[in-house]
Amino acid sequence: MKCPFCGYEESRVVDSRPADDGERIRRRRECLGCGKRFTTYEVIETVPVIVIKKDKSREVFDRNKLINGLLRACANRPISIAAIEKMVDDIEAKLQNSLDREVSSTLIGEYAMEALKEVDEVAYVRFASVYRQFKDINSFLEELNQLMKNKN
Prior knowledge:
The N and C termini lie far apart (60 Å). The chain has 5 helices and 6 strands. The mean pLDDT is 89. Strand 1 (11-19) and strand 2 form a beta hairpin. The protein is of the alpha+beta class.
């Protein structure tokens, strides 16, 4: 690690501690050249997940888009922001742990529906109605019947 004061390339770690809820490590270092101390942060390097959309375009996964979609589905429902963030964290972890660096938006939607189904059935139906783009009332009723059948 290059010293920000003198540019010397060697330093020793004086202190290490977790930062940002364990997402980063804060390290206090001492330059072996000039003796001054400085702080560095170590973070896990992640490879971005690319989302293949229905129109075959590609974009980097954006957790905020997923949060916004879930917030709309959960509007006026007894679901906390913390619960929504946990769902998104779990979905993002599944995507990061997958060996695939490119995933379809369909898969992300399925993960979101699975998570919503466990938390709130109304939010699940709301999300599914937008996500699956029901063509008519019969396809919507089929989804509701599936939900009722799986519940019993």
